[in-house]
């Protein structure tokens, strides 16, 4: 077997990057963890009636919205500056799904800002569950963009 290098440098470089590392994937764990965590704290509140969990949900949703909006800035930078990204159906599902997540998180955050505890059932819990479900789909498609379409993945050589 001959010793050869197989170049895999056919990925798409991110416009929004630091030292070649795309920023969007560095930020997305925060809103995902916060917004899925809010579903768990909503369930904890409903199971215990402990106001701590209602307050935790409010903070997690607020943190999820703010960090999600920040991640969106960098994701949108790539989406709108790299035509190859917009050519993928996965990118549109990821974009529109995450825009929906941010809208749902904002609504969820606003309805709870007036009364944290009474807004959890049924609307708060419903919005949290819907948000978590959409994140499963958009996370899958974000992975498709990175791993299958090599968005933000460049410069690798297999030896």
Short summary of the structure?
With 159 residues, the protein is mainly alpha-helical. It has helices spanning 24-27, 29-48, 51-81, 83-86, 89-114, 120-148, and strands spanning 6-7, 17-18, 21-22, 157-158.
Q: Mind explaining what this structure looks like?
A:
The protein is mostly helical. It has six helices and four strands, in the order βββααααααβ. The strands form two sheets. A two-stranded antiparallel ribbon has the order 1-4. The protein has a two-stranded antiparallel sheet with strand order 2-3. A hairpin with a 2-residue loop joins strand 2 (17-18) and strand 3. Helix 2 runs antiparallel to helix 3 and helix 3 (51-81) runs antiparallel to helix 5. It is elongated, with a radius of gyration of 19 Å. The relative contact order is 0.20. Residues 1-8 have low confidence and may be disordered.
């Amino acid at each position: 077997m001959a010793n050869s290098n197989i170049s895999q440098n056919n990925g798409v470089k991110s416009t929004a990057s630091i030292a070649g590392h795309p920023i969007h994937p560095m930020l997305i764990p925060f809103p995902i963890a916060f917004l899925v965590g809010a579903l768990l704290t909503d369930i904890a509140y409903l199971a215990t009636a402990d106001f701590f969990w209602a307050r935790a949900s409010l903070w997690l949703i607020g943190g999820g919205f703010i960090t999600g909006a920040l991640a969106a800035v960098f994701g949108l930078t790539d989406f709108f500056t790299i035509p190859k990204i917009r050519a993928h159906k996965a990118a549109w599902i990821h974009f529109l799904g995450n825009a929906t997540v941010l809208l749902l998180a904002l609504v969820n955050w606003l309805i709870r800002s007036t009364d944290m505890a009474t807004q959890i059932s049924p609307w708060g819990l419903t919005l949290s569950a819907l948000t978590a479900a959409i994140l499963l789909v958009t996370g899958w498609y974000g992975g498709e963009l990175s791993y299958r379409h090599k968005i933000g993945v460049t410069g690798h050589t297999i030896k």
